[in-house]
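Two folds, back to back.
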Amino acid sequence: MTASVSGTPAPLNTPSGHLLRPAESATCEPSGHDTARCTYTVPVTATDADASPSGLWHVAVLATADDGSSTLDPEAADFTVE
């Protein structure tokens, strides 16, 4: 599998914030003055991995501030699975 970041537009069916609230939490570490690298781990069976489609994937991010307000970026990043 190869991943690369690009500026490809998000698909028309981008998720809304309410769909992302139950998503897995990430562990984030600073990686620069105004950036962070966030990672998370979820269990995946070999069958699921083999059935995952290759191609361009988009990452949506729902960020929540200390005051409870939130914002959604439907195309925060993307990667390609080959």
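---
second:
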Amino acid sequence: MSETPRSRDSGGDTGTGLPQRRTGPAFAHTPHRSDSRPPHTPRGARQPGPGGRPGTIPPVPGRPATSSFPLRSVLLLAGALLGLALATWQVLASGPLLGPDERISSALVRTLPDAVTERLADLGNVPVAVPVLVLAAAYALRRGNRSGAVAAASAIALVPALVVPLKAWTARPGPLEPWAAGYFPSGHTATAAVAYGAAALLLRPYARRPWPVPAALALTAATAAGLVLRGFHWPLDVLASLLLCVPLLYAVELAVVRGLRRSGPPPRRRRPGRPPPRAGRAPAPPDR
């Protein structure tokens, strides 16, 4: 009987050597997947991703792709800007919205003592609101969120740059001072909204409880109420300032999130009263 090549290779070996790779017809056949895709796709044959780069992993089926600028944010910003444009147009053209605005102001002015409403309106003063933002920005900068701190400082600096030209353009008189002008929009409301709102956005990732945002909303609402009740501003002045601050605060929020991604998320703190997790016990030796 003639000796085959396979018997010659394994004749003197009893299995002590390393296995050899065999290349034959049986091993040349590569099984195909049920979805007609090859098991190994070369990098050059992969479909390019959104950026046109080769080798991008395709999206997971059934999972929608997330966008960095969702539709809800677009609608919020568009609504705020359209509302601000509508209020400005009504003031410039003496539109029909000024009638209800003046009647609401007449019904609310001085319904509370001036000593109370003036203290509430003072919450929007620069010496009161801006130091709060400075402390929050310093804390966020200390925690490594540099982009959030810079965005908050830029937002509060843009408040007079946006409010002062609108005041000079509209030249609206005040509720109790019809001979004066420059009441639309409210600068105190814009200062309070940006200072307290940006401070809340900076402190929210590091707070144990979700108190920064409700506190900022309460301080801003108190400022707006004090301005209207004291007769320093019309209600439409306050509303226009709030709409003006929406894009500024949204930009601060994006910068805070970007800063958290760069510096890393804050460490999760253990709830008070909850004991720390215990280490697992070593398994007992088996009985012999």
